[in-house]
Amino acid sequence: MKYFLLCMLLLPVMRSEAQELYIYTEPASNIPAKSISAKLSANYAEGMRGESKGLVQRYRPEMYMGLSKNFMLRASGTFANMHTSAFKFESASLYGKYRFLSKDEAHRHFRMAAFADASVSKAPFRYDEIALMGNKTGAEAGVIATQLINKLAISGTVSHVQVLDKSRFEDAPLNLPYQAMNYFLSAGYLLFPRKYEDYRQTNFNIYTEILAQQTLDTKRYYVDMAPGVQFIFNSNSKLNLGYRFQLGSDMNRMARSSVQLSFERTFFGAL
């Protein structure tokens, strides 16, 4: 009974935000206050490892904590064989997001948030692409803006990332990228249900995301596209499937395309 009442209270929130639960990026909205979400993501690609090409994989367990309606934390780690022949622990990271602007109306809202991320990785520094999800030790900070209009949600993210690898602080640092700007544009649309009648209805969302990066020291770039689909079950569980592929780049990258599968379960009121 307690769970049912909680879902009834949260249903208007989940209705309006379902289509902005993006697969590859974060929206300006947070998970519900006093709630916890557990997520497991799997990433598969045909990548370079040494001189050979083959299937590489990475698994990322994450824990989200909604400390208030405006502030959330995320702790995560990665296990992979993307940089080594052995599958093993790769990295740990801590992410925080603060929503500082909310303009909410019926069937629409505009929100902005600031975020910071820090990661420690055991992976070797091999590729130009700067990503804190397992690949690099570093820090990132940025701003997110998300606009929801009925069943369409569009979000943009701009962030600055710094690599803190030990090679950067040597007397003769290598000619590697240590800082970059990220530019992300995400769109999500709620296809089903056409009309909400019960919190147990399955949601079906479709997404398209543009992910771009420009390094500031070596002046290299990439632009990727990432379409995906999402199912939300019982208003508390999400199943995501996305395919990311390169549109253009002059970087030395591990892979030009990858598939991501993830599942997330939210525990409302757990805190």
Structure notes:
This protein has one domain (2-52, 59-267): Porin. Helices cover 6% and strands 59% of the residues. It is mainly β. A hairpin with a 7-residue loop joins strand 11 and strand 12 (257-267). The protein has a 12-stranded antiparallel β-barrel. It has one helix at residues 2-17, and strands at residues 36-49, 52-66, 71-80, 88-105, 108-121, 138-149, 152-163, 179-192, 203-215, 221-233, 237-249, 257-267. It is built from 1 helix and 12 strands; from the N terminus they run αββββββββββββ. This is DUF3316 domain-containing protein. Keywords: Signal.
CATH architecture: Beta Barrel
Biggest sheet features: 12 strands, antiparallel, barrel
* Strand arrangement across the biggest beta sheet: 1-2-3-4-5-6-7-8-9-10-11-12
Strands, total number = 12
Q: Please estimate the helix content.
A: under 10%
Shape: globular
Termini gap: 18 Å
Strand content: over 45%
Annotation keywords:
single chain, 271 residues, mainly beta, Porin, twelve-stranded antiparallel β-barrel, 1 helix, 6% helix, 59% strand
Question: What is the strand and helix layout of this fold?
Answer:
Elements: H1 2-17, E1 36-49, E2 52-66, E3 71-80, E4 88-105, E5 108-121, E6 138-149, E7 152-163, E8 179-192, E9 203-215, E10 221-233, E11 237-249, E12 257-267
Antiparallel strand pairs: 1-2, 1-12, 2-3, 3-4, 4-5, 5-6, 6-7, 7-8, 8-9, 9-10, 10-11, 11-12
